[in-house]
Design a protein that fits this description.
The protein has 315 residues and is of the alpha/beta class. The chain has one domain: NADP-dependent oxidoreductase domain (TIM Barrel). Helix content is 41%, strand content 13%. The chain has an eight-stranded parallel beta barrel with strand order 1-2-3-4-5-6-7-8, surrounded by four helices. The model has no long low-confidence stretch (mean pLDDT 96).
Length: 315
């Protein structure tokens, strides 16, 4: 089975106001509506959430946007995550059966929807019992509350460990992948090289996902704007060089720096789906040309960006 071409997703972590418990303000809802409209205007149809984003306020703000826009729910896909807890009196990770079910129900209530298209297990839980997860997932799927299952921040071996117990296919793995966080590419080129020992990305994860129809989603895809003009207190020499090359390519191709940075990700044969995290409608709009730039990016351009971002030659 061949995975569909890459697509842009909108990450809703920035919606809802401050990172603190409390109500969602009218201003936060207006900001969320503007960001969602901007994402829709460039063809985004998948919106990424997590129950912890802004202590649940991101989901609540998005739910208010859905109320303002009748028919929008039927035109988009919503995914959310569970498994991380922010309450200081609870364990930081919790993928127990009861917790998964409860937290999905809470997300549905905040979003004001009957189901999410995809549920992602947010981080590996060292006390995870795959059989218990399987029971929770089966119950949620049978009840029509989730349609698909994914994970986030997991290696290929961890996904395989889960999948042995779970009947529903795991179809998504969301990882930090970007021009800045390029260790996932290093893991490929550094096989049989001494530098591989210092690389923290688990080699084989991309290969497992590609072999098992697990879609890769990239959080942090724009690297917080380091290559597209965001103010940064201090840049490394590699970041300066890569930023200059991004600017050069954007000018030569009459496009935006954001489109070049995202196009580099989407050019990879793993068909990576970048997750856009900005709440600025102008910056969201600047990403519109990413798919086209991926299609026309040459091998030489791709490697030039990669080597510049690495800051050192390839072996």
């Amino acid at each position: 089975m061949t995975l569909p071409p890459s697509q842009l997703l909108y990450g809703c972590m920035g919606l809802g106001g401050e990172w603190s418990p409390g109500p969602v303000t009218a201003n936060a809802i207006d900001q969320a509506a503007a960001a969602v409209d901007a994402a829709l205007s460039i063809g985004v149809s998948v919106f990424d959430h997590a129950d912890i984003y802004r202590f649940g306020k991101a989901e609540r703000a998005f739910g208010e946007v859905l109320k303002r826009s009748p028919g929008l729910r039927e035109r988009i896909e919503i995914q959310t995550k569970c498994g991380i807890r922010l309450e200081p009196d609870h364990a930081p990770y919790d993928l127990d059966r009861a917790s998964i079910v409860t937290r999905v129900d809470d997300s549905l209530a905040r979003l004001g929807v009957d189901y999410v298209d995809t549920l992602l297990l947010h981080r590996p839980d060292p006390l995870l019992e795959p059989a218990e997860v399987a029971v929770a997932v089966a119950a949620l799927h049978a009840a029509g509350k989730i349609r698909r299952l994914g994970v986030s921040n997991m290696s290929g071996q961890q996904i395989a460990f889960l999948q042995r117990e779970i009947d529903l296919p795991i179809v998504v793995n969301q990882l930090e992948l970007s021009l800045l966080r390029h260790d996932w590419v290093d893991s490929t080129v550094l096989v049989n090289h001494p530098d591989a020992a210092a690389n923290t990305f688990v080699h084989g994860t991309l290969e497992y996902c590609g072999s098992n129809n697990v879609r890769l989603q990239a959080w942090g895809a724009l690297a917080q704007g380091r290559y597209s003009g965001a103010p940064v207190a201090a840049r490394t020499a590699a970041e300066v060089a890569a930023s200059a090359l991004v600017q050069q390519l954007a000018e030569a191709k009459n496009t935006t720096r954001e489109a070049i940075v995202l196009g580099w990700l989407m050019r990879h044969p793993a068909n990576i789906d970048p997750v856009l995290g900005s709440t600025d409608p102008h910056r969201i709009a600047a990403c519109a040309d990413a798919g086209n730039q991926a299609a026309i990016m040459t091998r030489d351009e791709w490697f030039a960006l990669y080597v510049a971002a690495r800051g050192r030659p390839l072996p």
